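cron nightly-structures :: item 1 of 1
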Amino acid sequence: MMQAVTNFFKGWWAQILFFVVLVLIYLFVFSGIKISGTSMEPTLLDKQYVGINHVAKLKRGDVVVFDARKEDPRIQAGKKDYVKRIIGVPGDTVSFSNGNLYVNGKKVNQDYLSKSERTDGTAGDFGSHWDLKSLSNTGLWKSEDANTTKVPANSYFVMGDHRSVSNDGRYYGYISRKHITGKVVVPFWYSSTVKKYVDQQDKDFFAN
């Protein structure tokens, strides 16, 4: 009888421990999210499910999820998370000219975008030539980010792939590392093209 009771509690605690480990993994290592909106088309589509790696080192080209309530002062009611691509990391300069995007003076590979999104879409409301300083002085960014020429420490400059509709760093400035939930990882059944443009774009960030 006593052995049966002991075995019962051993099994019970094992299940509790297993559940706790799963919760910790979900909260601090890996979780999932459903894409909401069209700002990452055609790479990621509205209502698609993707994973989030909470502990990945963030690099240029990575697609990330962040809490936009703490970054976008004009966020729509009911919105929370934004999914965007990292263009600039701390210390980087970012500029756009003649239909091309540059980071630290090097041309960025944007094969994942259509020609119209690389040109008119990226120009957006800011003209055919812009850089971080001109964007930061539009009056849309936080006052502490005004007149900046480089991405500050512990911050990132992000843009959506669907540039013509994306509400991104061009309109509200840098996002803080502490507000980034993690890096997007696509499920194994997604196409090799999507995997390349999401999971591996950091390796092919600059144009050859």
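cron nightly-structures :: done
Residues 17-28 have pLDDT under 50 and may be disordered.
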